[in-house]
Amino acid sequence: MAECRGLGHSVQRKEDARFIRGQGRYIDDVKLPGMLYLDIARSPYAHAKITKIHEDTAMAVDGVAAVITGKTLEGFKLAWMPTLMSDQQMVLPVDTVKYQAQEVAAIVATSRYAAADGAAALEVDYDPLPVVVDPHEALKPGATKVRDDKESNHIFHWEHGDADGTDAALAGCDTVVEQHMHLPRIHVASIETCGCVASWNPVEGHLTLYLTTQAPHAIRTVVALVTAHLGLAEHKIRVISPDIGGGFGGKVPVYPGYVLATAASVVTGKPVKWIEDRSENLQADSFARDYHITAKLGSKDGKVTALKLDTVADHGYSDAAANPSKFPAGLYHIATGSYDLENAHVSVDGVYTNKPPGGIAYRCSFRVTEAVHAIERMVDLLARENGEDPADFRLRNFIKPEQFPYQSALGWEYDSGNYGAALEKAMDMIGYRELRAEQAEKRARGELMGVGISSFTEIVGAGPSKTFDILGIKMFDSAEIRIHPTGKAIARFGTKSQGQGHETTYAQIIAEELGIPPEDIQVEEGDTDTAPYGLGTYASRSTPTAGAAASIASRKIRDKARKIAAHLLEADEADLVWEQGKFHVKGSPDRAKTIQDIAFAAYTNHPQGMEAGLEAISYYDPPNLTFPFGSYICCVDIDRGTGQVRIRRFVAVDDCGVRINPMIVDGQIHGGLTMGIAPALLEEISYDADGNITGGNFMEYLVPTAMETPHWELGETVTPSPHHPIGAKGVGESATVGAPPAVVNAVVDALWHLGVRHMEIPMTPARVWDVLNEHGAAATR
Amino acid sequence: MIPPSFDYHAPDNLEEASRLLLANPEAKLLAGGHSLIPMMRFRLAEPAALVDLRKIPGLSGIREEGGSLCIGAMTRESELEKSDLVQSRYPLLADTTRVIADPVVRNLATVGGNVAHADPGNDHPATMLAYGASFVASGPSGQRTIAASDFFTGPFSTCLEDGEILTEIRVPEAGPGSGGAYQKFERKVGDYAVAAVAVQVQLDGGRIAGAGVALTNVGLTAIQAGAAEAALVGSDGGDAALDAAAQAAAAAADPTDDHRGSADYKRAVVRVLTHRAASSALARAREAS
Ligand SMILES: Cc1cc2nc3c(=O)[nH]c(=O)nc-3n(C[C@H](O)[C@H](O)[C@H](O)COP(=O)(O)OP(=O)(O)OC[C@H]3O[C@@H](n4cnc5c(N)ncnc54)[C@H](O)[C@@H]3O)c2cc1C
User: Which residues of chain A does B194 touch, with a Cβ-Cβ cutoff of 8 Å?
Assistant: First the structure.
């Protein structure tokens, strides 16, 4: 029998053959006969009244077939669409635009060029209105009101934890540190931008929607709900998510372009393609972060006791965050992190501003990055204030292995962890004490080097149905496995890979459970007509949910296989022993049937009274979330002349429980770390006082390349999840979440002796130089 | 990111190219296309026609002749990178090409296009000023040679006249005791400079007999820092001279505040980079003595 290569094998990725050979099929590869193209005219203003749209100016362009405006959509009650957070968002504005680059009109044409020319030719008259870009300003009385349909710019107040208890605990602390920090707007900047091909069949009344979406089923249901009044029903909607070139949370939302292409297809009776360009992607698609946090952390006798976070969240003109419905601030209340502390309170006030909507979980399980940034910065500050090395302070204050399952002050039950082991391993790998000695020498010579730690706790795998739903749909996920007569298999899932390697990872889980080699298992996702219902891939949930479903479905198949094996071996079921890939009769290892033999029998020789076939489905409702963790240590050198921060070394010790494909795990961490140092050093989307975007293209939005990326040194510890069928936890986001504060802590560490206590991100050379200059430490050569 | 439509011509001689330009005032020359095409995609430039230079023979190549290093206008950056002549004898030029954009862009981008585009963020203009290079242009009224110091008249503008085409760049031939260096500070690879400094020196005995210092992206055009050059010439290239030159270069810079940093910051960076470039140029010149 072929070796089954289940868990723990770095199997080559099954999907790579087509990706490497250019045979992937992405949205822009979808070409249908008679297809029309859609382009979008966008607002140059951040806030303005539209006084007139001169549709004739676009219609005059050769090849332009239609111009769609907010007024057109209003007739179909489609000018607004609901967001996941019970707010609403414009598909096209009927009278006012609320942010720069907002969609104003759609141009449908016979070629992509004609559509672009039409969008450029469209003349629109605007009356500019006052703009509010700063959320603190937006909260002041008399501030420009962003939304005409709301009373103020304050969207919501959310809080969690014991406010009075936390205040009292802070008052009783002997040491309290307080810090304000801003996690600026950033963008996922996936290499493939968003787009769709909508194909309406007027005869069948059927809509096929090829879509860059991380959650095809949820989208199908949303489309059905939003268009029910127009007569469209869920069985007449097929969503196909082809290969996706990076999602990172940015392909969870429904964008106006999708609705416009669909409307255009219904109106014209032809397939309509919309593919956004890079600038549109960066300027108008959902952003991430934009949390202004005021944090307080206190200790008594060197023991961390109380945390308080007050937060102003800039949501842009609509609350279109992609969170589970009951969590307006996502899982921000993981903020107590890796530390054993008894009192905590967090609050978030959501605010409207004249910016694009969003608040997506950019490679982060719903605001966990924000929480980790806050706690890891604060623990560093508190350690120093206590006169203790930040590593030693962490080691003393960590939740201890014997405390798991651990009940956090903010209500989570952490499944498993061994935080000290991970940090100690990272310290050994990087030579922490030696670096400290080197730093002391360098400091004496006037050179700037720093070492920063981040010991993060993640919370992923949303989630248990008692608390987790999106628009009422519970956040389970699914696997359906069918074993063919020849012992090969097809497995379909409710999730959708965007580069994570699901076709390989899922096949390995099934291989482990059933003993069928991964190459004999075809994995499919992304077509709502064939895949079982699921909530999709984001928030590192695929392995914790659909991966678990793969295990459970496999075990159901194994149960039936046992019956068939008993029949074939003429033995009692209870006397059969499972070893990977076959059953044998207890005591006679030679009397055995392989899973392939059994599969064949399931179709050719199954016991009388039993249904033929060998297949199973599982909708897995996770009993808890999983809590991956790790410790990262970053060592930086700073150029005193230019302010440039160079990452000399970066050690990342990750614990994601049992590793299914270690190579894929390493790849996830490599990519995540790169996306983690990016906001720390490079990336930001900002706005001037008039709401004009800066950072709206790749010349200004500085995505790191191989040249900016240090050599990653990875380590691991393995603390299985006690509740996941194979002990796995998610890993897709740990590094993005954990890395930024390690870099900030390293830079602040390098500058500590100058009196620097905090750095805002991104720590651009200009920003670092300003700090050096202020402290008389800038060099002239 | 889709340009409006345009006509396309690819003539095979300079005269025809000039004629097409004159006949069509809205036409633009196309070299490597890596400045022009992005502008067209953003619809910041909407030329009615492109006149592609790639089929015209004799416009590319690198050779030493008549006391100059002659670089054809259509020579790709990657050819400079691969040229032993440039790499061994023209370190300032070698430094410069290596920090322009990224390898993919450098496979197409041309030296002539870089100079003719006259983007204050382009790297070759300062290098050519520091070298004291000259440019050969060919047009309806024949051929002329223009000193780099006369060439750049403003942001994205040069003294080239209608129908004139840049054909060759001439850099004074490297002799014993010459050396140079380009120091560019960028936010990430492929970025235009926060600031960059080109320094070329000629040693005579232990002293600096000639110096060129020029700055990138800290003004409306590349800036020749005459006072910095003066601070170096006649000196022994010691720390005091370098400090004086660095301060003079910072004073010559005329930057503005933007997303790359404040004007003060950029001036400080010019000072630092001038010091570093001058030290490196001197070390190379000593090695070449
Ligand atoms: C991502 C990216 C990063 C970049 N980074 C840098 C950088 O860091 N530093 C840098 O210096 N450059 C950079 N560039 C610009 C690149 O080097 C350009 O290619 C160069 O500026 C222009 O050369 P070209 O051959 O592409 O010219 P084109 O784009 O073809 O032409 C540019 C302009 O010059 C005119 N022109 C071209 N050739 C001639 C000629 N022979 N006679 C008269 N006029 C002519 C054209 O009409 C046009 O107006 C970057 C470009 C990109 C796309």
Answer: 642, 765-766
Q: Is the pLDDT of residue A69 over 60?
A: yes
Of the candidates A494, A469, A499, A449, the one whose C-alpha atom is nearest the C-alpha of residue A634 is A449
B74 C-alpha to ligand 1 centroid (Å): 11
Q: What is the CA radius of gyration of chain B?
A: 19
Confidence of residue B111 (pLDDT cuts 50, 70, 90): very high
Rounded Cα gap, residues A105 and A66, in angstroms: 10
Min distance B271 CA to chain A CA atoms (Å): 6
Closest ligand 1 atom, residue B99 Cα: 8
| A781 close to B (CB below 8 A) | yes
For the entire predicted model, the pTM comes to 0.97
Which residue's CA lies nearest to atom 27 of ligand 1? Answer: B113
Question: Least CB-CB distance to A278: which of B1, B260, B261?
Answer: B1
Among B13, B14, B20, B36, residue to substitute to test ligand 1 (most atoms within 8 Å of Cβ): B36
User: Please, what is the average pLDDT of chain A?
Assistant: 97
Output the CATH code of domain A31-129+194-275: 3.90.1170.50
Among chain B, residues having any CB pair with chain A shorter than 8 Å are 1-2, 4-5, 42-43, 102, 185, 187-192, 194, 242-243, 246, 259-262, 264-265, 268-269, 271-273, 275-276
Q: Are A285 and A144 in contact (CB under 8 A)?
A: no
Whether B288 and B206 have beta carbons less than 8 Å apart is answered as no
Q: Is A644 on the interface with B (CB under 8 A)?
A: yes
SS3 A233: coil
Report the pLDDT value the prediction gives residue A1, as an integer from 0 to 100. Answer: 45
- Taking the C-alpha atoms of A379, A381, A386 and A392 in order, what is their torsion angle to the nearest 10 degrees? 50
pLDDT tens-digit map of A454-488: 999 999 999 999 999 998 999 999 999 999 999 99
The CATH number for B178-287, chosen from 3.40.640.10, 3.30.390.50, 3.40.50.2000, 2.60.40.10, is 3.30.390.50
The closest-lying atom of ligand 1 relative to the alpha carbon of residue B76 is 25
CATH fold of B7-52 reads 3.30.43
* pLDDT tier for residue A695 given thresholds of 50, 70 and 90: confident
Q: What is the pLDDT at residue B1?
A: 83
Give me ligand 1 centre to Cα B167, in Å: 15
Return the residue whose CA atom lies nearest to atom 28 of ligand 1: B33
Atom of ligand 1 nearest to the CA of B29: 47
CA distances from A465 to A333, A532, A625 (A): 19, 18, 11
Q: Which tens digits make up the pLDDT trace of A263-283?
A: 999 999 999 999 999 999 999
Tokens of A585: 């009769």
Q: Where in chain B is CATH 3.30.390.50? A: 178-287
Pick from B194, B264, B275: which is nearest to A765 by CB? B194
**The token pair that represents B150 in the structure block:** 């006369």
How would CATH label the architecture of A373-462+624-774?
A: 2-Layer Sandwich (3.30)
Q: Is the pLDDT of residue A746 over 60?
A: yes
What positions of A carry a catalytic annotation? Answer: 214, 363-364, 733
Quote the CA–CA distance of A147 and A357 in Å, as a whole number: 12
Measured from the Cβ of residue B107, the count of other Cβ atoms closer than 10 Å reads 15
| pLDDT at residue A399 greater than cutoff 80 | yes
Contact A764 B261 (CB under 8 A): yes
Enumerate the domain spans of chain A: 16-22+477-620, 31-129+194-275, 373-462+624-774
* 2.40.50.100, 3.10.180.10, 3.30.365.10, 1.10.3720.10: CATH of A16-22+477-620: 3.30.365.10
What is the Cα–Cα distance from A319 to A563, expressed in whole angstroms? Answer: 53
- Locate B161 and state its tokens: 């006249």
Q: Which residues of B touch A112 (CB under 8 A)?
A: 2
